[in-house]
Every structure is written in structure tokens, then in C-alpha cells.
Structure to design on (334 residues):
């Protein structure tokens, strides 16, 4: 039986992924690639909705791909490629843009947050149509499931709406995808501001744990993480957001349940708990970091793998795009 398709991606918007990306998405990708025909892209066309230095963007793109592989995505098993290598993404995004309402796109909360933060002059049309390109990414591959963190839910909802709209206007063309969101780890928070999502673009670095950071730097950030004055290691998202966030990270990285961790640290202070978490983090990330840096030492080989995977992605994507053009009545070149 052929496997159902899975699609997901990350922006190469920093030198390293942060652990929200790892826990909220990459860990699921790694598990799900076994049972799905999985496609994972490095979405460089999305990343340029923010100003980028060209040589840095190239480096960040390779770094993101290297971290996928180091975290366990196998390019021999899954299709791991760079979005801009497959021109069908930009083409389908244009088509879907013609079916998206201005108000509909304007209601996307990530767009509202970002445009407010940057101001009108620094907000590009590309940032506005970002979710339409994301819909194109997903729909090109006849995707069944999209594993993401909680913040992408609204974008996938829009993707579903656009797929259904196209299908009802032009005939069944796209599979309507489902989001897969691991509820307990869907949102990892900033260590210094445990009410805000941990993000690659956070204003301050102190609350962000980076996959490629020196482990001792990450351990220091954990030791300085904001907690509360109660002193007991107990999960309570409302009253104890800092400690609860650390517990979620601890549980995800160690594969243990939160109550077992609470028991282990009962009657002990936050210092012990944080030290325990730092150890778990270092032992999980040390090999990932070492492998990513090793892959980055041979960029030609990494580029070769990405190129070969892009050939396969382009083949699948072209089939869908060609159907779309036909169904819409665009005259085909002979
Ligand atoms: P990006 O690069 O912002 O994030 C990549 C993935 O990491 C998840 N994530 C988090 N999960 C839990 N806690 C956090 N603090 C946290 N921060 C980030 C995100 O939910 C995401 O799954 N628009 C997407 C990229 C994209 C995409 C796609 C995803 C483009 N095309 C098609 C799926 C399918 C994004 O900005 O991801």
C-alpha cells in the first residue's frame, strides 16, 4: 500500500533552530517519517519576507538542512529539499493568491502581529501573502498531514479553505490536508518571558535555547530561566508558567512523564531541577550539534543531497501544477 503524504517546513531565519522548533515540530517529523511519504522543505522563499543578507541566507539555508538531518530526518527515506529549488511553489502561490480574499489574508494573526511590530513601511506584500505560499507548499504534494506547532494552525486552516474553494470551482484537484499538532508540546515558551512563544526572532537572546549553541551556554540560560517564588517543582500553567514550561521541555527531551519528574524533584529546589534539565538537554543536543557541524564541513555534499531530493520534489509538484493550469483553463504551450 502506498503511504500517505506528509509535508512540513521551517524558515532558515537564524543561524540555528531553537528548541521550540525541535520539540514542537522536528521530533514529530522524525517519528512520522517512518509511516508517511514525508516531504520536508527549508522554506527560503518565506524567509525573504524579512530583510536578509544574501550570503547569510545561503548559510542559514544549509544550516537548517543540516539540522534536519542531524536531528534524524533521513534524506534517503524522506524528501528533504530547499523550497526555491522547486519553481512550482511560487507558481501555485500566484494561482492561490487569485482565490484568496484580501480580508481573509488580513485576518492571519501572525501577519497582524508582525506587521504591527515592524510598522507599515517595513511590512511587505510578501509578508501579507506568506500564508498563501505556505498553502502552495502543502497542496502541491497532495498532502494528507502537516505536523507543526500550534502557531501554524491558522495557516493550515486557510490552506484547507483554499483547497476546498479550488476543488469546488474547478473540480477535485487538491487533497484537503489535516494539521497534526502534538498538544502537550505545541508551544514552548521563552525562558525569560514564559508568556511569550520561544522564537528565532525574539528580541532578546537570553530566553531562547539554540540547537547549535555551545551546550554550556544553554545550561547557563536554563539556570537563569524565570521561575517563581513558590519553590516547588509542580506543573501549573496559570500560576507557574516558567516552571511549567521547563517541565514540558524536560518531559519532551527525556521521554518521561511530567508527574514522574515532579516526584523526582519533590522537596528539592529549583536549582537541582534546572541542573537536571540542563543535563538532559546537553545529552540530547550534543550529538545533534556535532553531526550538524560535521555536515556543514562538507557543503558540496550537502548541496548534492539537497539537489537530488529537489529533483524528486519537482516531479511530484509539476504534476499537480499542470493539473491546476489545465483545470483553470490556462492555454498550455505546445
Ligand atoms: P517556523 O520556521 O516559524 O517554525 C518551524 C516549526 O516550528 C514550530 N515552532 C514551535 N513549536 C512549539 N513551540 C515554539 N515556541 C515554536 N516555534 C516554532 C512551528 O509551529 C513550525 O512547525 N510557516 C512555517 C514554515 C512553513 C511551513 C510550510 C510549515 C512554510 N511552509 C508548509 C508547514 C507546511 C513557519 O514559519 O515555521
Amino acid at each position: 500500500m502506498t503511504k500517505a503524504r506528509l509535508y512540513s517546513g521551517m524558515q532558515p531565519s537564524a543561524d540555528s533552530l531553537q528548541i521550540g522548533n525541535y520539540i514542537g515540530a522536528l521530533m514529530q517529523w522524525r517519528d512520522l517519517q517512518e509511516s508517511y511519504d514525508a516531504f520536508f522543505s527549508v522554506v527560503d522563499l518565506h524567509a525573504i519576507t524579512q530583510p536578509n543578507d544574501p550570503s547569510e541566507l545561503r548559510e542559514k539555508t544549509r544550516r537548517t538542512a543540516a539540522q534536519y538531518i542531524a536531528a534524524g530526518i533521513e534524506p534517503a527515506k524522506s524528501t528533504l529539499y530547499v523550497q526555491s529549488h522547486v519553481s512550482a511553489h511560487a507558481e501555485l502561490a500566484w494561482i492561490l493568491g487569485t482565490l484568496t480574499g484580501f480580508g481573509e489574508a488580513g485576518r492571519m494573526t501572525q501577519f497582524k502581529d508582525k506587521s504591527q511590530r515592524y510598522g507599515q513601511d517595513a511590512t511587505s506584500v510578501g509578508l501579507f501573502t506568506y500564508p498563501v505560499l505556505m498553502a502552495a507548499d502543502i497542496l502541491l504534494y497532495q498532502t494528507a498531514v502537516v505536523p507543526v506547532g500550534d502557531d501554524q494552525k491558522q495557516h493550515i486552516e486557510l490552506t484547507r479553505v483554499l483547497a476546498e474553494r479550488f476543488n469546488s470551482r474547478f473540480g477535485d484537484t487538491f487533497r484537503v490536508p489535516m494539521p497534526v499538532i502534538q498538544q502537550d508540546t505545541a508551544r514552548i515558551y521563552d525562558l525569560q518571558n514564559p508568556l511569550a512563544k520561544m522564537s528565532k526572532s525574539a528580541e532578546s537572546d537570553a530566553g531562547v535555547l539554540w540547537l547549535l549553541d555551545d551546550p554550556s551556554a544553554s545550561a547557563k540560560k536554563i539556570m537563569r530561566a524565570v521561575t517563581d517564588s513558590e519553590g516547588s517543582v509542580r506543573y501549573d500553567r496559570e500560576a507557574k508558567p516558567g516552571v511549567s514550561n521547563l517541565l514540558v521541555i524536560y518531559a519532551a527531551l527525556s521521554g518521561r512523564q511530567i508527574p514522574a519528574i515532579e516526584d523526582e524533584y519533590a522537596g528539592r529546589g529549583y536549582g537541582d531541577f534546572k541542573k537536571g534539565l540542563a543535563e538532559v538537554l546537553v545529552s540530547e543536543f550534543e550529538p545533534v550539534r556535532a553531526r550538524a557541524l560535521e555536515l556543514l564541513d562538507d557543503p558540496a555534499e550537502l548541496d548534492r543531497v539537497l539537489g537530488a531530493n529537489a529533483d524528486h520534489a519537482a516531479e511530484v509538484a509539476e504534476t499537480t501544477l499542470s493539473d491546476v493550469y489545465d483545470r483553470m483553463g490556462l492555454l498550455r504551450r505546445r
